[in-house]
Amino acid sequence: MSLLLGFGLLTCIASSESSSVFVLKGQDVRLDVQENVKLKELELFKWTFRSENILRCSDTLLVKVSPEYNNRVEFYQGNFSLLLKNLQQNDSGPYTAVVNGDKEKTIIAYQLIVQERVEPPVLTVDSNSTINATCNVTVTCRGQKTSVTSSCNSSTCSQVGGESRVAETSTVPLLSVYVAGGSIICNHSNQVSWANDTKEIVELCPMKSVSPPAGSMSVCMLKIILVSVGLVIMISAVITVHIRDRFHYG
Fold first, then answer.
1. Which terminus of the chain has a smaller tally of CB atoms within 10 A, N or C?
2. Residues 79, 82, 86, CA angle at the centre, nearest 5°?
3. What is the pLDDT of residues 117-176, one digit of tens each?
4. Which residues are within 8 A (CB) of 34 and not within 5 positions of it... i.e. 6 or more apart?
């Protein structure tokens, strides 16, 4: 819905009323104005945060920044975009571009959510077993005061306990457990960062050697017997030829 240029890692999700923008704490973000704004005489353009002015721009393009935003914002007069610097969590909230004249007109609105980088999760093994050559593992993925318990095999995982996964647009960090590349992966993420912990399935369920049934012969033993028989035949043939030659020429 909106065009937004970000500085640092961010996610933009559009809605019918405003665009939700997720930004990593400490990064910058630029809030763009799509509409081609042309101020008429005595009209005033403003960027506001929670209804408080960030800056004002007159029809003569004279810009006045509120003192608390000095050195924290940049204003692009060509397209009326706003650059917010070094964002902190208390910068989260509604940002609105408006034009004041005979009446107030909202040009564009953003809902900004500043998030911290997620902590690395911890993946622990609760139990493991091998049944009919299939590895079955129960694991728990923990991160930031929440956990998810899943039952996994070599191809998939299914949640059996812990908190339910919430919508991807949530501001709450998400925990997920899945299988990829022969490993069980515990992933901890929010809209602007992710971290994971992994364990290889082969290390959790090492394949055990299987003894052949009683009375049966292993492939290895069969190979040894065949080679031995072949050697005996070859040696017998050489001795027979040698004895025959001695009698013939003796």
1. C
2. 150
3. 999 999 999 999 888 888 899 999 999 888 999 999 989 999 998 765 555 556 778 999
4. 2, 3, 108
Query: Which DSSP string do the residues of 129-168 spell out, in sequence order?
Result: EEETTEEEEEEEEEETTEEEEEEE-SS-EEEEEEPPP--T
Structural tokens at position 22: 């997720």
40 within 8 A of 103, measured Cβ to Cβ = no
Report how far residue 248's alpha carbon sits from residue 250's, in angstroms, rounded to the nearest whole number. 6
The torsion of the CA quartet 70, 71, 77, 79, rounded to 10 degrees, works out to -110
What residues does 13 pair with on adjacent strands? 20
